[in-house]
Amino acid sequence: MPPKKGKKGKEAEPKKIGPQPPNVFLYIQLAGISRLPTTRHPLEIHISQGGSLIVKCTEHYNTDGIIPQWEFDTRPTFTLIFQQDNVDRINHAADNPLLVELFMRVTPFRSIFGVDGAYGEEEGEEEEDGDKIGISSNSSTPVEVIIKNIDRHHNSVPEQFTSRVTVKMVLLCVGYLDVIKLFGHSRSMVREQLYLYPMPDVEESLRSTVHTEWHLYTLLPIAKQLTFTNMSFVTFESIYNLREEYILDASSMRVVISFRSRIPGDRNDMNVPLCDFEYLERLCIAQQPLHHVFESFRRAVQPSNVTGLKSTMEVETYRLFDELLCTDGMTVDFSDIDQGGDDALVCNSFHRFILTQKMADILSYAITCQQYVLAVEVFQTIGYTKPQKVFQGILDPSIMAYPGVQNMRFAVQLDYMGKLRPPPKRQGTVSIASSQRTENNVSRPPTFAIIKLCLLAPIGEIYKELQVFRDSFIRQNRLLFCDHPLVPQVGIPLEEIQADSFARFDKFIRDCIIFIIQKRVNKIEDRKQHFCCAVQNLANILMKVIGSVYNTRTPTSTNVDFSNLCAVAYNDLEPRVHALVEQAENDGFETFGGGRAEQSDRIMDYLNTIKLLRAVGDTRTAALFLDKAKTENPSDERFNFYMLILHMEFGNYDLAKEYYGQSHLANHYEYYTNWIKLYLNYYDSRANPETEADCTECLLRSITSFAERNLRQPDAWILLYCYYKLFRYEPGCAYARWRFEDNQGHNRPTSPTAPHSLWGLFLAINPNIPSKRGQLFFEVFKMFVRLGLYEFAQVVFGAIENICAESDRYMVKTQLAIFLNQLDYDFELSSYDFGEGLEADRAAAMNAQVNGNVEYYRGRKQEAALYYQVCLTLPPFEENERDPFELGKLRLGYISYEMGDNYKCIEALNNPFSGKMTTLVADYLMGKSYYKRDHLEVALHCFAKCTTAETHVPNVWGFLALLNLRMGQNYKAIECWKYAKIEPDRSIDDEMIFTELDAINVDTIDLFIDVPCQSAEDFVEEAGSIN
Questions:
Q1: Under 8 Å between Cβ of 916 and 950
Q2: How far apart are CA 1011 and CA 1004, in angstroms?
Q3: For residue 413, what are the contacts with CB-CB under 8 A and spacing of at least 6?
Q4: What is the Cα Rg of the chain in Å?
Q5: Which GO terms describe its biological process (predicted)?
Q6: Is 420 exposed, middle or buried, given 0-12, 13-18 or 19+ CB atoms closer than 10 A?
C-alpha cells in the first residue's frame, strides 16, 4: 500500500451506504531467469514498488520482497494489494513501476581470534574475492546495504567463536515492470520478458544482461467501474542560468509543483499539490544524462541514468532550447548559454498520472477557464535548518487547452528568493577580464527551469486505446512514451516542389538571355566553354522538372516510357522558353540585359507619383501616367505586383482580383501575393450574406493554414496572436506566441526595393517602442500597411498600442480609421507638445499633417490647408533624406490653387520632391500659378522643366505653345503645339489651355513667321536656358 500520510487533510466525507470495494491481489511470479553472472557469491533479486506492501506467497508472513538465488527456479510469487476502483492507489502504481534489482551479497569473514586452518584460509579467499569484484570499500557508487552485528553461523558456531561481519550488497543489474498494463476492466494476465541491464560501475567479469520472465495476473479486475481516458506526464528537466552569487545546495533541493488559484481566496486550499522532485545534481549542461527516468527510480537507485531504467523520452542536446514556451515577458537569448561551460541543476525525471473521465473534465475546466496556474517552488535545506525557498516561478498551462496540443516544454522564469553570496573583497587593481565578467553577470538573462507537460491525448479528448487496453497497445509500451513532437517535420508539398522547379528553369533561361545580350554572343562556338557547363546545369534542372511534374502525372516503368515522357516535356517547355524570349523582346533587350535597375526606378517613379496624384484628387494626370507605365511595361512581373498593391491600397479589390486570374512566372513576390489573396477571400466571405456569420472563424483557419505553410515566418503567427488577444482566447494566444517566439531566430523575408507605400505618404513615423516584441509587432504592422491590408494592420497595432506614446497611438489609429472609412464625422482632433528641437518640430508637423488628413477626409479642405502649411516652417531636408511631407505640400498646393491663392500654391510646391514625375507635377502646377499671376517668363521656365522628366505630357506642351504665342514666339508656339499632338491617342485635356486660347484676340497675332526652321529639341534647350 502507499505510504501513510503524516497529516490529515480535510475531514473525510460520510461513508456511502453499501459494502466497500474488495481488495484485489496482483500476483507477481518469477517464471524464469537466465544468463546470470558467474560468481561464487550468492545472488538475490529485490522487488519494490514505491514503498507499497509486497507480500510473498509463503507459509510465513514475508514482506521483504527478496528472492534468494536458490529460489530462482522455484517460481516464487508475490502479491501487491489494490482496492478495486481506488484512483489514488492506481495512480500511485502508475507513478511507481515495479523496480527489479539483482544484487550480489558479499560477506567477507574476519575472526576475532587468531584461528588457523580452514577459517584462516577462508578469510584469505573471501578478501581476495572481495578485491576481485572491483569495488572499493570507499566507493559510494554501488548500492550498499550495511548490516552490522550479524552473527555468522549462528546455529552451529558457539557464541565465543562468533564474529562481527559487514555484509555488502552490490547492485549488478536493474530493470522494471509496468504494472499499469493490468488495470483493465476484467481479470488479466501478462507475460513479460524483462532484461536486467548491468550497472555502469560493475566489473567487466560480472557484467551480464540477465534475461527474466515474469507472469503478472489478477483474479479480479483492478478497475472494474473506472474508465481511463487520458494519461499525463510531468517532467522536470533542469534549471539554467545559475549565477555565481547564488548559495545553492543541490543535494538537498526539493522542487514542488502545485496548482495555484489565480484568484486568492480566504480558504486555505489555494495551493493543490501536484508532484515534487528531489536531489538535484549540479552538472555541466553538456554532461547531463540524456534520458528521462521515473522520479521514484531516481530516488531509489544511484546512478539512475542507466539502461535498465531509461524511458524512451530523452533530452536532445542539439535541440535543448528549441520549441520552448517561455514565461510571458521573459527575455533570454539561448545562444548565450554555453552548453560546454555553464552548469545547470539537473533532474531529468518525470511523474506519470492516469486520468479518469471525471479527473480529465476537472483538469480541462481548470485550464480552459483560466482558474489555475502551476506554481513552481524550489526548497533547500542547509544543515539542520528548516527548508528555505530559493526559487519560485509560475507556469501558465493555458496552451494545453489549444486544440491538438498534447506535448509542450516550458521555460519557466525563476526568481531567486534566497540569500546572495557576498561579493569578493575589492583588489587594488581590477583586470579587464574581471570587469568584463562583472558586466556579463549584470546583463545575464534570468534563471529558468525547463518543465515538460505531456498528455497521451489533447486535453478534453479521450485516448481510446487507454480505455480498452488492447494487446497491441500493451506490447508496444505506449504507456511509457509521451514525447510526440507538436510540430511534425512535414515534407515540402508537391505544389511547392513543382513551383520551385519551374522557377529554377525560368531563372536559367533568363540568365542565358542576359548572358547572350551582355556578351553579344552570335553563335554558340563563341562561348563554347560557358554553354557546355550550362547544358549540364540545364540537364539537372530538367530532371527535377520532369520528375516532380511530368513523372508524377504520368508514371513510367521503362526507359522507353521515360524517353517518350521527356519528349512530351520538351514540347511543353518550348513555348515557355519562347514566351520568356518574347517578354525580353517586349521589355527591350537593352533593358533586359543591363538596364533593369533603371527600368525599376522608372516604374517606382511612375507609381509613387500616381499614388500622390490620386491622394490629391488629380485622377486625370494619374490616369495618364498609369497608361504610360502600362505601355512601357506590358509584361513586367514587378509592375504587375506593384499594381496589385496599389489596387489594395486604394480599396479597388475587384481590380486586385484580376491579378490572380492571370498566369505568373514563379517569383519571390509569392509570399506577399498569398497574403493579399487571403485578405481578399476574407473580404469576399464577409461581404457574402451566406458566409458572413462564419467569416471570422474561416479567417482564423486560413491564417493558421498559411502559418503552417510558412513555418519560418512569424508574420502569420503574430497576426493570429493579435486576433486571439482581441477575442481574449488565452490558449490561442499562448500557442501563437510560442510559434512566433520560436521563429525569432530565423530571418524575415526581405522585400525588394518597392514604390513608396500609401501609408508612408500619409504618415511616416517610427514609434519608440521599448520592448523587442513590440518592435517585432510593428515590423509586421508595417508589412501589412505596405500591402494595403489595413484591417490586419489594425488588429496587430491593437496589441501594442498600450506601449506606444499617446501621440503615436493617436496618429496611427486616426490614419487607419481614415483608410478603413471608420472615422466618425464628429471625431475630435488632438495636437501634442513634442518639446523643442528639429525632431520635435518634425513630429509636430506630422501631427498637423494627420489632422489635415482628417479634415481633408471630411471634405473641409480650407481647414486642412491650415494644418498642411505647418510643414512649410521646417528647414529643408538633406539631399539623400526623404521628405515625409510631400503629400501635405502637394495637397496644400492643389487646395491653394483651387482657392485662387497662387502665392501659397507656389510656396508649397517650390520645394524639392523625390522622383522626376512628382517634380513634373509640382512644376506644372507652379507654372499654372505663375501664369495666372501673369509671370509668363517664370511660368515658361516651370513648364520647360517639366519636359526634362523623360515622358511626354500633352498639357505641358500645350502650355508652352500658349506661352510662346502670348510672348510673340509664333514659330515656337506652332512647334510646341505640334509636339503636344505627337501621340494620336493622347490629347490636351486641360481646359485652362483652351480657355486662355479663346481669350486671345486673333487680330493681335502676327501670322508672318520669319524664324528659320527650328526643331522642338532646339527649342527645349533654348527654353531651358531662360533664367
A1: yes
A2: 18
A3: 326, 327, 330, 393, 446, 447, 448
A4: 42
A5: cilium assembly; cilium movement
A6: exposed
The identity of residue 531, as a single letter, is F
d(Cα 815, Cα 212) in Å, to the nearest integer?
Answer: 76
Whole-number Å distance between alpha carbons of 876 and 22: 93
Beta 407-413 vs 324-326: how paired, if at all?
parallel
Q: Is 982 exposed, middle or buried (0-12, 13-18, 19+ CB in 10 A)?
A: exposed
744 CB neighbour count, 10 Å cutoff: 12
* Separation between Cα atoms, residue 193 and residue 858, nearest integer Å: 83
Task: State the Cα–Cα distance between residues 961 and 977, nearest whole angstrom.
Answer: 5
Q: Is 20 exposed, middle or buried (0-12, 13-18, 19+ CB in 10 A)?
A: exposed
Angle between helix axes 954-966 and 916-932 (nearest 10 degrees) is 30
| Burial state string for 521-556 with b = 16 or more CB within 10 A and e = fewer than 16 | eeeeeeeeeebeebeeeeeebbebbbebbbbeeeee
Q: Nearest CA to 43 among 152, 173, 232? A: 173
Please give the Cα distance from 236 to 352 (Å, whole number): 12
Using the structure block, give the residue that is written with the C-alpha cell 501631427.
847
State the residue for C-alpha cell 497521451: 456
DSSP 8-state assignment for residue 314: B
Overall average pLDDT of the 594-613 stretch = 86
Chain segment 402-416, per-residue pLDDT in tens: 998 989 999 999 999
Cell 505641358 sits at which residue? 956
886 vs 868: CA distance, rounded Å:
10
* Superfamily of segment(s) 228-421+444-480: C2 domain (2.60.40.150)
Q: Are the CB atoms for 80 and 24 separated by under 8 Å? A: no
The segment with the largest mean pLDDT, out of 103-112, 752-761, 834-843, is 834-843
